[in-house]
Write a structure and sequence with these properties.
CATH class: Alpha Beta
CATH topology: Transcription Regulator spoIIAA
Number of strands: 5
CATH superfamily: STAS domain
Radius of gyration: 14 Å
Order of helices and strands: EEEHEHEH
Shape: globular
Largest sheet: 5 strands, mixed
Number of domains: 1
């Protein structure tokens, strides 16, 4: 399992540094799962897109431990799912938001 930790940032001005997103990679020879943990924000999309390109067509994004997303991430998830990426353990609020954003585009 590979791990990718994305930037350490001060939270709430308290000077305490916390990891806001962790990506764990699990491959079984047939496909790859990227397990996202924490807050997924637009500022991390470049790295996430690079990971998606690196791991190819049989990709699963496990969102079970995602605590927060923003609209740019919702658009990324919509596009990824349209390209065949499987979204696993997607929180109901994210699915609802994705549906609303799809409807706005139509």
């Amino acid at each position: 399992m590979a791990r990718c930790l994305l930037p350490l940032t001060p939270e709430h001005g308290g000077g305490v540094l916390q990891v806001t997103l962790k990506i764990e990679t699990v491959s079984d020879g047939k496909g790859t799962t990227l397990r996202l943990i924490g807050r997924v924000k637009a500022e991390y999309l470049e790295e996430l897109q690079a990971q998606v390109r690196r791991h190819g067509p049989r990709l699963v994004l496990d969102l079970e431990e995602v605590t927060l997303v923003d609209v740019a991430v919702v658009h990324f998830l919509i596009a990824g799912e349209a390209e065949g990426i499987v979204l696993q353990h997607c929180a109901p609020y994210i699915r609802l938001w994705m549906g609303r954003e799809r409807a706005r585009r139509e």
